[in-house]
Specification:
Elements: H1 2-40, H2 44-80, H3 83-89, H4 98-136, E1 144-149, E2 156-164, E3 169-177, E4 183-192, E5 195-199, E6 202-205, E7 208-211, E8 214-218, H5 237-244, H6 251-276, H7 284-305, H8 318-334
Antiparallel strand pairs: 1-2, 2-3, 3-4, 4-5, 4-6, 5-8, 6-7
Length: about 325
């Protein structure tokens, strides 16, 4: 009974909160692009496509933040109508409110994770292609320049130009330095499967160069490069995981996808603990802002901490660890 009642109290504010954040984020997107859209005379259909392709990203933000809004607003109503006091007087312990909220948060977390793993990357790639078309009147060429990779234990792989062709990629001006100091150079090659196949390469060892007809150098990531996206947002979880095996820079965004999903549960947990600690319902809206702002500050700082060698990709968990500690402390005080 308590579980159904609490979820019912949270469901309507959650829907309103998600719609509110979708509206805010979409408005921010359109205002930031308004100058370009007007200057280029972008058709309304293209503007709507940009909004549509951006929607999975928007939902990735709105779903967890809307939950924080819903929990605090829902608990505030229970406080305002003295229902929370009545529940406590009837012998209902504060911790009994946790399971239904955390269960709801787990469902939202799964949605957020599925969205970031598969839906958002595909939509993000289309969004950036369409945005590129708005800016330059054409689609991206797909060619990558000056790409370097560092597979663990295999040295450094570098290509001046990479042309993806669907089944892999063509490599130009290739240079591979093995951990032993052996250097391979070639004008052309192919990135196919888990190998870089060099055509007519030179093998340089101890200052002596030997020409080979062809060589296949092991490359552990079965990843087809694409230039249609900026950064890693347009890669599916599987692609990002493969790329992280050879590109250390991809390990932080990979870890962040897991951390963001867990962060939904942590945010909901802290929001409920804060809400149950309120004495006046009027504080609810102020606390919505504080909880969200605090998480955003930590989320932004995590990216900078990831650049520190001692922290690395694990810095993605900073917001969850900090908010989890606060939620745990607050839960102890509710007993």
């Amino acid at each position: 009974m308590l579980k159904r009642y609490l979820l019912r109290e949270v469901s309507l504010p959650y829907l309103l909160g998600v719609l509110l954040f979708i509206a805010l984020i979409t408005t921010d997107l359109l205002s930031s692009l308004s100058g370009v859209l007007l200057a280029r005379g972008t058709p309304l259909s293209d503007v709507l496509l940009l909004v549509l392709y951006r929607l999975p990203y928007t939902l990735g933000v709105a779903l967890p933040l809307g939950l924080v809004f819903a929990i605090l607003v829902g608990v505030a109503r229970l406080i305002r109508d003295s229902e929370l006091k009545a529940a406590y007087a009837g012998g209902v312990p504060p911790l009994s409110f946790l399971p239904p909220i955390l269960g709801l948060a787990a469902v939202v977390a799964l949605l957020v994770f599925a969205n970031s793993a598969w839906i958002k990357p595909a939509a993000q790639a289309r969004f950036e292609q369409k945005l590129y078309q708005v800016y330059y009147g054409t689609v991206p060429s797909g060619v990558l320049y000056k790409q370097g990779y560092a597979p663990t234990g295999l040295g450094v792989y570098y290509a001046e130009r990479i042309e993806p062709d669907g089944n892999g990629a063509r490599l130009y001006a290739v240079r591979v330095v093995e951990p032993s100091g052996v250097i391979w150079t070639a004008q052309e090659g192919r990135w196919q499967g888990r190998n870089w196949i060099l055509t007519a390469p030179y093998r340089v060892e101890n200052g002596r160069a030997t020409r080979w007809e062809k060589v296949a150098l092991p490359f552990p990531a079965h990843y087809v490069p694409r230039a249609a996206t900026r950064g890693y947002a347009g890669l599916t979880l599987a692609e990002l995981r493969e790329l992280a095996r050879v590109d250390p820079r991809a390990r932080f965004p990979l870890m962040r996808r897991y951390a963001d999903a867990i962060g939904v549960v942590v945010l909901a947990w802290l929001a409920l603990v804060v809400g149950l600690s309120l004495r006046e319902a009027a504080w609810a809206f102020a606390l919505v802002v504080l909880v969200i702002l605090g998480y955003y500050v930590l989320w932004t700082a995590a990216a900078r901490l990831a650049a520190v060698a001692a922290v690395g990709p694990m810095g993605a968990w900073l917001p969850d660890l900090a908010y989890g500690a606060l939620a745990l402390f607050g839960t102890g005080r509710l007993r």
